[in-house]
Amino acid sequence: AESISPNLAKVVLAAKVNGQIQDFHTPLPDKAEVFLLKSGTEEALEVQRHSGAHILAGAVKRIFGSEVRFGIGPAIADGFYYDLELPRKISDDDLPKIEAEMRKIIEEDVPFRREDLPKSEVIGRMKEMGQNYKLEILEGIGGETASLYQDGDFTDLCEGPHVPSTGKVGAFQLDRITGAYWRGDAENRMLTRIYGLMFSHKKDLKKFLHQREEAKKRDHRKLGKELDLFSVHDEAGAGFIHWHPRGTMLRMLVEDRWKEM
Question: Which tens digits make up the pLDDT trace of 213-222?
Answer without folding.
Answer: 999 887 666 5
